[in-house]
Amino acid sequence: MHARQLGPFTVSAIGLGCMNLSHAYGLPPAPEQGERLLLAALDQGVTLFDTAALYGFGANETLVGRVLKPHRRRFTLASKGGMAGVTGEDGVLRRVIDGRPEAIRRNCEDSLRRLQTDVIDLYYLHRWDKQVPIEDSVGAMSRLVEQGKVRTLGLSEVSAATLRKAHAVHPITAVQTEYSLWTRNPEIAVLQACRELGVGFVAFSPVARGFLCDALHDVGGLDAKDIRRTMPRFEPAHYAANLKLLPGYRALAREAGCTPAQLALAWLLHKAPNIIPIPGTTRVAHLQEDLAAADLRLQPGLLARLEAHINQATVSGHRYGAQARAEVDTEEFAPT
């Protein structure tokens, strides 16, 4: 596996996003299948595993901790706080964004326990709580570093301005944001800010939540609890428009001699040396397919045609619904 630098860590050029082993895309796989996937990733040379307190309301961290604890020295462990499941007075467990220092400390302690580790290598603020100054949240996270509970800090779904404010409080190792051919928002300002500050960029949903795998052709078949049902791009009218991009994209993948998913990942790897995609999957065969993208070499002409074919002007619909858009702090291209 090719390697890239992420702050003080040397990690695999492609990491593993663990979310969908417990969360988001309908009924998660059985724990045994998740265990096989995690161990296969480790055996295939993946050395960056990404989870969060939110995923499965702690179930994902519990799975990762149980399975990978015996191999802890072999990989870089990333998790996130500031957004987690909280049980309300009515007894219902709900997702809550809370960037107050006391909440961040509590989230971290809970994550350490579930992950069965003494220290988290890279700890992200999962969402900036806009009711709390970013300096306060990052200040609390910096104290976790001082206490030896966390090695480095990251931010998720933030603007360039917020990144700069946070970095002035404590060095930020990585920004994690959605980035793919069909979500180009980081190109507005965040990628440049990362380059200037020496911050790594971790790209989640690098295959566009399955769209760029060229396998999801009927959104009507999505599970009722699949989060894509809440995303405008996957609404039938928008998705019908987006499906028209796939024949041309498929042809470019054939020209590159790879699968559509591999083309999406290779494009990201060619964009800059500080970009590390973290695709997620539940299947070992798909994992192996994804990791092979690190070996691809794409010609500049093909890259240019690829970017002209799928971009913010050719994709239909917002990436998030109105509520989710209000919760993130990223610069956004207007949708078509």
UniProtKB/TrEMBL annotation:
Protein name, as recorded: Candidate aldo-keto reductase (NADP+)
Matches recorded under Pfam families: Aldo_ket_red
GO cellular component terms, semicolon-separated: cytoplasm
Cited Gene3D superfamilies: NADP-dependent oxidoreductase domain
Keywords noted in UniProt: Oxidoreductase
Positions of the NADP-dependent oxidoreductase domain: 13-310
InterPro entries (alphabetical): Aldo-Keto_reductase (IPR050791), NAD(P)_OxRdtase_dom_sf (IPR036812), NADP_OxRdtase_dom (IPR023210)
Source organism, top-level taxon: Bacteria
Endpoints of the signal sequence: none
Species, as recorded: Ramlibacter tataouinensis (strain ATCC BAA-407 / DSM 14655 / LMG 21543 / TTB310)
Any GO MF annotation of the entry: oxidoreductase activity
